[in-house]
């Protein structure tokens, strides 16, 4: 997909002016957050499970080579094959070679963020293979020729009316000439059109929520039956996954599963949890003749042992963006790449470079809600702060911004001077605010005052309050 992270500010302005997007995002702001809270409250051990999941992931990252090699051994023992790919290009070429080995003309696809990361669909299309998205949300955005706007709800930015228009525009060739407005009717229409495509597909491509070293199994977690049909009906099943999806055992997977759905959609458990282990065996009624796992690194191994390692605990539940006030305001496309929201703000600079993605770590209020709800307890604000520091050290931001930070740092390193300057600034701001007590314009603060008034400071400074608090009994 085309990267526009460098244009985050322009993307955000356009998003805030999009009435349909504002309507659609209300579902994220109210639906997911409420459901997650209720699901967590119903499970007394929820916080303990978060700790256990974090510890499992930390253990894996400390022994990543061992568990990946163990996983490959078990896949081979079950009749499959693992393909190690360092870059997106290698992964794309590997998948294309596998598809061509069975003369594939079509490939059904389950939902996969890694497939988005490597831009698999346009690559297959350019090489004469038609990719068919079977997840309803992914199918909708494929018709719209758009990237996902959310990790678990790729079409969450679409309203029902927009989906109705899309189906009418594209389904006429299947004899569908009536515009449906009932949600269930829209689902049924998509299901009927996709049904034959499952049967006709030569290859099925899925992602993986987990890779289990103990058994060589790959696991997908879905709320639709499309994933099962995608991997069972074609002659070849290709799994595309990244290295950090590995877990030691099925018990470990089950532990993390208990927080995954609750964090993502507020469900006790997703409707389908599907385990794939190797090829079709003698006596099996269905299943692939060939089973391949394409493992993508794409810079992840470089994160191990660095300030970014904790990002590799992410299980792609989307809880951070479901609770993020910035995401609720601008949606996912404003971030300009595959991973939006707080996880994207922390992760994308690693993949794209801080020069391209420098705006993203600053697209945060640092309210801390993302870390509070993350089931793997990833310190997202701290990592975004790390990227802000990197942007400053590498002189990525505009000169005026860097000069402002240096100016502030000069005073911050001199407490007495800082207190004096703060008192003086407060007096000046109060005088400028006048009787109204607000500032309608302020140098270097146009980003705020262009859209709202800035209240003048009142009462004592933070340092004065802190000092008085320490003195109290």
TrEMBL record:
Keyword Electron transport appears in the UniProt entry: yes
Record InterPro entries: 4Fe4S_Fe-S-bd (IPR017896), 4Fe4S_Fe_S_CS (IPR017900), FTHF_cligase-like_sf (IPR024185), Helical_ferredxn (IPR009051), LUD_dom (IPR003741), LutB/LldF (IPR004452), LutB_C (IPR024569), NagB/RpiA_transferase-like (IPR037171)
The 4Fe-4S ferredoxin-type domain sits at 304-335
Know the name of this protein?
Lactate utilization protein B
Top-level division of the source organism's lineage: Bacteria
Keyword vocabulary terms for this entry? 4Fe-4S, Electron transport, Iron, Iron-sulfur, Metal-binding, Repeat, Transport
Question: Which organism was this protein described from?
Answer: Oceanibacterium hippocampi
**GO biological process: any one?**
lactate metabolic process
Q: Which GO terms describe its molecular function?
A: 4 iron, 4 sulfur cluster binding; metal ion binding
């Amino acid at each position: 997909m085309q990267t526009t992270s460098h244009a985050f500010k322009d993307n955000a302005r356009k998003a805030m002016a999009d009435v349909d997007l504002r309507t659609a995002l209300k579902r994220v702001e109210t639906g997911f957050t409420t459901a997650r809270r209720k699901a967590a409250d119903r499970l007394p051990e929820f916080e303990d499970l978060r700790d256990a999941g974090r510890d499992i992931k930390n253990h894996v990252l400390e022994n990543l080579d061992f568990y990946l090699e163990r996983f490959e051994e078990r896949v081979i023992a079950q009749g499959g094959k693992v393909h190690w790919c360092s870059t997106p290009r290698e992964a794309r070429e590997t998948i294309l070679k596998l598809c061509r080995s069975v003369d594939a003309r079509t490939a059904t696809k389950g939902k996969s963020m890694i497939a988005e990361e490597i831009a698999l669909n346009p690559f297959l299309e350019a090489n004469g293979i038609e990719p068919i998205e079977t997840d309803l949300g992914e199918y909708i955005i494929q018709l719209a020729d758009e990237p996902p706007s959310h990790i678990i709800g790729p079409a969450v930015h679409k309203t029902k009316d927009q989906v109705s228009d899309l189906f009418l525009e594209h389904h006429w060739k299947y004899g569908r000439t009536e515009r449906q407005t009932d949600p269930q009717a829209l689902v049924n229409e998509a299901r009927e059109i996709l049904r034959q495509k499952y049967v006709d597909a030569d290859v099925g491509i899925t992602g993986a929520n987990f890779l289990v070293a103990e058994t060589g199994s790959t696991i997908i977690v879905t709320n639709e039956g499309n994933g099962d049909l995608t991997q069972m009906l074609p002659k070849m099943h290709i799994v595309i996954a990244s290295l950090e999806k590995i877990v030691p055992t099925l018990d470990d997977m089950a532990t993390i599963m208990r927080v995954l759905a609750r964090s993502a959609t507020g469900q006790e458990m997703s409707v389908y949890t599907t385990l794939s282990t190797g090829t079709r065996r003698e006596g099996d009624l269905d299943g692939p003749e060939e089973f391949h796992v394409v493992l993508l690194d794409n810079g992840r191994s470089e994160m191990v042992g660095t300030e970014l390692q904790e990002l590799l605990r992410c299980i792609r539940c989307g809880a951070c963006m479901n609770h993020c006030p910035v995401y609720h305001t601008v949606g996912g496309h404003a971030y300009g790449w595959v991973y939006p929201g707080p996880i994207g703000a922390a992760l994308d600079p690693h993949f794209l470079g801080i020069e391209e993605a420098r705006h993203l770590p600053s697209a945060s209020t640092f309210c801390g809600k993302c870390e509070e709800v993350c089931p793997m307890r990833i310190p997202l604000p701290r990592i975004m702060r790390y990227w802000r520091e990197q942007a400053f050290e590498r002189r990525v931001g505009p000169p005026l911004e860097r000069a402002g930070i240096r100016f502030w740092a000069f005073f911050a390193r001199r407490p007495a001077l800082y207190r004096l300057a703060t008192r003086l600034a407060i007096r000046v701001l109060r005088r400028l605010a006048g009787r109204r007590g607000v500032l309608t314009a302020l140098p270097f603060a146009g980003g705020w005052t262009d859209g709202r008034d800035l209240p003048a400071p009142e009462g004592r400074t933070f340092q004065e309050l802190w000092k008085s608090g320490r003195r109290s009994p």
